[in-house]
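Pipeline run #58 for the internal structure catalog. This entry was flagged by the ingest filter as a single-chain record with no existing model, so it goes straight to prediction. Upstream metadata was stripped on purpose; only the residue string is passed forward. Reviewer on rotation: M.T. Logging verbosity set to normal.
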Amino acid sequence: MLPVSSRVLVLVIWSLNGSFEAGLMVSERTWRHSSGTDESEETSRVLAGERSFAYNRLNQLTEIIATDRTAEHTFTTSDHV
């Protein structure tokens, strides 16, 4: 166990940005923010994942494509709804 004076508090905050067309979400990005580190504001914001959404002519969700960027390698999955 570290002495009290050596402990560092790191807070991870997630934020979400979405893009919309005709009232439907077509893409979404998830960002991870770390505070309590010596990193600048710019470098503490890391893209954690992305999702794209496809709709049919009736505006029903038909497909979600998700990309996870939190692992060492980027993983992309596609699901048909």
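catalog note: DSSP finds no helices and five strands in the chain.
catalog note: The radius of gyration is 18 Å.
status: ready for reviewer M.T.
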